[in-house]
Write a structure and sequence with these properties.
This protein has 399 residues and is mainly β. The protein is built from no helices and 30 strands. It has two domains: 1-94, no CATH class; 110-396, TolB, C-terminal domain (Neuraminidase, 6 Propeller), CATH 2.120.10.30. A four-stranded antiparallel sheet has the order 7-30-29-28, with no helix packed on it. Strands 8-9-10-11 form a four-stranded antiparallel sheet, with no helix packed on it. It has a four-stranded antiparallel sheet with strand order 12-13-14-15, with no helix packed on it. One of its GO terms (biological process) is protein polyubiquitination. Pfam families: NHL. Keywords: Repeat. GO terms for molecular function: ubiquitin protein ligase activity; zinc ion binding.
Length: 399
């Protein structure tokens, strides 16, 4: 019997059957011999009848290049799966930024998009909001007042390319009205766009012949977007002061954060902006008008203040309208502290943050920011900031 084999790659920390690769057939299965190790493999490689039970109680396999893993959709006992160490392209892992403990970044940024004054030329931006970096270090920008999504390729800092909108402000399907956030849905290779003042979320194919988007949901005052490993989309609503979760296959939603009117209690939000969802489906929210970041553990009824919450201010214990968010594999999170013109790092359990970029005052210098909003990281751990007031995106290199 010829068995098509695949590369065995680890996906520790991800939930069972999480999307762990660009290839949709690949999923994360838990290794039976370990309490916290998982592997990214083709879940449809073998039929149910071909799956062989592991040797008990040692959870081992007789066949060489096989691994004992749980595949609960097929059997309620661990099974042996072929996982030799070749064909590395079969289940390439979704890349996660490699940021180590005590990392530092260059204090001076490099302009990777815009920086030529406010305008609508292809070398300009007009109040950039959300920023997203794909695995090839392509920079996607929600170009707010130009009503478009711009794409800038690494190495070409001269001009960007309009990939959605750019047909003027409007509500046609080929138009946008002040987009605030954008991300890539890998399985369909589409953009997901928060079209703020059209009160809708669009899906826009990245195929070169695409001329318009399709409405994924409407009648929503969206601001921020995030997607988890299982293709659930999270959307913040700044009018209802809540975050809802949607499966991309349907439009049914689940309330996951807030929904208790505006306020500053732990079960409330006030104008939530940007989001991050970790591998355990815990949701981080920049609670903009409460000047804090909340973490809502999966299925929790209230959040935990993990940054700010000490009133508006510029002390290291405070935030001033937090915006963009990112959480790394160590649980360290990064906040675009918009009103303080800085990016702040908070480690788990810290009582105060550490400024990694910015000097607490607005300015156009390479070491300065002016109302930073969106932020993201590439897989090398370099930081990208949507420098709203300077109409540019800057990259700060990991040192």
């Amino acid at each position: 019997v010829l068995i098509v084999r695949l590369q065995s790659q680890r996906c520790d920390g991800m939930v069972e059957y999480a999307v762990c690769s660009k290839h949709s057939v690949c999923a994360c299965l838990r290794i039976a011999s370990s309490s916290n190790a998982s592997i990214c493999i083709d879940q449809f490689l073998l039929s149910r009848s071909e799956l062989v039970q592991c040797k008990r109680p040692t959870n081992t396999c007789h066949e060489p290049e096989h691994l004992c893993a749980y595949h609960s959709r097929c059997h309620d006992f661990p099974i042996c799966y072929p996982v030799p160490s070749f064909n590395p392209e079969y289940c390439p892992l979704i890349m996660i930024p490699n940021i180590f403990a005590n990392a530092t970044w260059s204090k001076n940024g490099v302009i990777v998009a815009g920086g030529n004054g406010k305008g609508n030329a292809t070398n300009q931006l007009n109040e950039p909001f959300g920023v997203f970096i794909d695995d090839d270090r392509i920079v996607l920008i929600a170009d707010y007042l130009n009503h478009r999504i711009m794409q800038w390729k690494t190495g070409d800092m001269t001009n960007g390319h309009v990939v959605a909108g750019g047909k003027g402000q409007g509500n046609r399907l080929d138009q946008l009205n002040c987009p605030t956030d954008v991300l890539i849905e890998k399985e369909t290779d589409s953009l997901i766009i928060c079209d703020r003042w059209n009160r809708r979320v669009l899906r826009w194919s990245r195929r070169s012949d695409t001329t318009q988007g399709e409405i994924f949901m409407d009648n929503i005052d969206c601001w921020g977007l995030a997607m988890d490993d299982q293709r659930y989309l999270y959307v913040s609503d700044i009018v209802k002061h809540e975050v809802k979760r949607y499966h991309l296959g349907d439009k049914d939603s689940t309330l996951v954060v807030g929904g208790n009117d505006q306020g500053n209690d732990l079960n409330q939000l006030k104008e939530p902006r940007y989001l991050f969802v970790d591998r355990q489906q815990n949701v981080y929210v920049s609670d903009w008008s409460n000047h804090r970041v909340l973490k809502w553990n999966k299925d929790a009824k209230e959040g935990i203040i993990v940054a700010g919450g000490q009133g508006v201010g510029n002390a290291l214990t405070q935030l001033n309208h937090p915006s963009g968010l990112f959480v790394d594999m160590l649980g360290t999170f990064y906040v675009g502290d918009e009103g303080n013109h800085r990016i702040v790092l908070w480690t788990q359990g810290a009582k105060q943050g550490t400024v990694i970029v910015g000097v607490n005052r607005a300015g156009p210098g390479v070491n300065q920011l002016s109302n930073p909003i969106g932020l993201s990281f590439d897989r090398q751990g370099n930081l990208y900031v949507a420098d709203y007031g300077n109409h540019r995106v800057q990259r700060f290199s990991l040192e």
